[in-house]
Amino acid sequence: MNLYKITVGDYEIPVHSFNTIIVGSGAAGLSAADKLYNFGQKDIAIITENMNAGTSRNTGSDKQTYYKLSVEGSEMDSVREMAQNLFDGQCVDGDTALIEAALSVQCFMKLADIGVPFPVNRYGEYIGYKTDHDPRKRATSAGPLTSKLMTEALENQVMSKGIPIFDNHLAVKILTDGGRVVGLLCLNTKSSGNENNGDITNADKKATFTAFSCKNIIYATGGPAGMYSESVYPFSHHGSTGVAFMAGVKGKNLTEWQYGLSSVKPRWNVSGTYMQCLPCFVSTNEDGSDEKEFLNEYFKDDGELLTKIFMKGYQWPFDVRKVEDGSSIIDILVYIESYIKKRRVYLDFTKNPTKNIDFSVLDNEAYEYLESAGALFGTPIDRLLHMNAPAVQFYKSHGVDLSVDRLEIALCAQHNNGGLDVDLWWQTNIEGLFAVGEVAATHGVYRPGGSALNAGQVGAARAARYIAKKGTGEAIGNEDFARISNTQIKETIEIAKSVSGNDNNAKQMLIYARKKMSEVAAAIRDVRRIEEYIVEVRNTLSNFTQLVKVNSPNLKQVYILLDTLVSQLVYLCAIKDYVDNDGKSRGSALYYTPNGKLVENLPEMFRFSLDDHSKGNMVQVGELDQTDVSFNWRPVRPMPEEDSFFENVWRKYRENGNVY
User: Fold this and answer.
1) pLDDT (0 to 100) of residue 554
2) 605-617 burial string, b = 16+ CB within 10 Å, else e?
């Protein structure tokens, strides 16, 4: 570590120098730091906007899943089989799929060893269960807060090693030189606006910005959650994908998201037993008047109504393949109430969806599940308490008593299967810049539930191992860093100076942008509305410093707004490019198609054509240039066929370079 200062215009910028900085303090980022240290690279630091924020630490579900190779005695499994299942999700690169399978046990066992309480039987087996898109019982769980427990255990490892943490630092600019990373510029949000009486010109040269000079960056900032208003991501997480795009990092599979029904306050997935206990769906006007049990207006048969609600627990993500004959019709009906009728939607656990509930009308799978659980009785809250009392306790701890209170829900953004394009070491197209966790695009159209937690740990391990072996050495010298970074830092600071004033419209602009994105580019997509919003976003970005005004204490909002709009532009253009290339409805997105099929009793806007998988072996890659976004389509990297003869592999391993 080295500390010095550089002068940029009227600013004196402190510069901290490290071999590697890790941006983000979630499960993937903390794991990367811990592994780097264990591999011998100790000249590292963690940069985070808020140590206690982020999705890993603040999200979960009724039973949050971790997906890995099956390690219980009764289940036949193999690395290649798991890799093939990941690869079959469409638009997945074979090498990263194989690596995520191969390292899954190693990464899982490390978490178990450092104290994450994954359940084990008396013989040491980690018994599993099937999750969505999972042919084997590979899933396990430490309960509703699996990722939080992972984050806390990994944080303990980081703290015990004394790895420096720079809290309250928002990444605003990745500094590059000739296609490789040289550092990072951050807004010090703890000091922002508190010096110089709010004078952003910083005449007395006290620092609002802090720079980091480094040879490597591990970018672990999570998905671009801030793009959407209807979101299950915690309020504390907005992501920083736009900052990466502005640095020239390429995006991959940006059209592929996962959406599902979630509560609004608190933000939480209402999956699993929240649906399997058969709650009642209610909508009202904004003021609470005109209460309706709106599902009853669509389903005329009690058996179909109850079964679809139950299956929504198994099939929680919105899946366009399950609109016509599956449970995803419920997501559509909730969307209609929320976005078309402008009503509020609630789950009511105090009463059954049908007046005199008859469990015998359920289909066999639903009936047998509830019978096995001993839950063929009472009201939804009775059944939920019986099957999963911690799921009730979670809401009570957040001020919602499901035995009394209704739970407001919406169709929300939950996970980005796309993100930044990475190679088999999780390195982006910018040399020295690695992306791990949800910000990295290693998933495709479909993914097994819980595979994201595994992918984050595996990506962290791969990036750390590569850096420890091939990314050694110190950051560039003080004078070189000052010369290379000066213009980039100055341009970023000029944004702050240009928007500073007495007014503050950044927050309202951010609220508007997020609502618009949820309306036009979430689970339900019409390319005509997307094209209109692209024009609007591009205009805002082109005139950003003229349109945005903010007072210094709220400067952070400006950079979050900029990052959000840049992310929206790239993602919106990806959707348009997908449709322009004859893309059809797939995964968790329904694209309006004028000559498509319309499910009975749905409005015209839900007419769609299902994807025929013809693009399943292709990957869409996008790149930002100012406010223009270009795309190319490439074949997926195939599943590697490696020599598995031990002596040959051993010889190559001993020769080091052949591994990397």
Assistant:
1) 82
2) bbbbbbbeeebbe
